[in-house]
Automatic annotation (TrEMBL):
This is Flagellar secretion chaperone FliS. InterPro entries: FliS, FliS_sf. The keyword Cytoplasm applies. Its main location: cytoplasm. One of its GO terms (biological process) is bacterial-type flagellum assembly. Keywords: Bacterial flagellum biogenesis, Cell projection, Chaperone, Cilium, Cytoplasm, Flagellum. One of its GO terms (cellular component) is cytosol. Belongs to the FliS family. PANTHER family: FLAGELLAR SECRETION CHAPERONE FLIS. Pfam families: FliS. It comes from Trinickia symbiotica. It comes from the Bacteria.
């Protein structure tokens, strides 16, 4: 199905991602999770438009796993207060909506979740200066 050249490019991309993860600070890792979830949703939309049921489901599952197993699992609810609890509820909502998107074959729902993730990603990027200042001062990373 894929040529050897494509396999090589895929392996190269995996190494790049793994290297990025290994060298990333916690703030960057969360950003990478947002980007990965959004990329999976973009793939799901493409597969939905092309009628590729299996790959669409795989892409949606990947986005759900990133949200629940990465973003939601990284929340520190014991120290994050109301913000962490609200993010937890929002991540639950997103996972449910992605399940709905798959069942209903709904691009509109995929767009809705992508927009929510884009808003959170934008906010996360917006606090990067504060995180960098705290790191330079030797303070612990900002709590989520």
């Amino acid at each position: 199905m894929f040529s050897q050249g494509n396999a090589g490019a895929s392996a190269y991309a995996r190494v790049g991602v793994e290297t990025g993860v290994m060298g990333a600070d916690p703030h960057r890792l969360i950003l990478m999770l947002y980007q990965g979830a959004r990329q999976a949703i973009a793939q799901a939309r493409m597969h939905l438009q092309q009628g590729n049921i299996g790959p669409r489901g795989e892409a949606i599952s990947k986005a759900m796993n990133i949200i629940a197993g990465g973003l939601q699992a990284s929340l520190k609810k014991d120290v994050g207060g109301d913000l962490a609890l609200r993010l937890d509820a929002l991540y639950n909502y997103m996972v449910r909506r992605l399940l709905d998107a798959n069942l209903e074959q709904s691009e509109a729902i995929l767009i809705e979740v992508d927009r929510l993730l884009a808003t959170l990603e934008e906010a996360w990027i917006g606090i990067s200066d504060q995180v960098a200042k705290r790191a330079a001062q030797g303070a612990p990373d900002a709590q989520r």
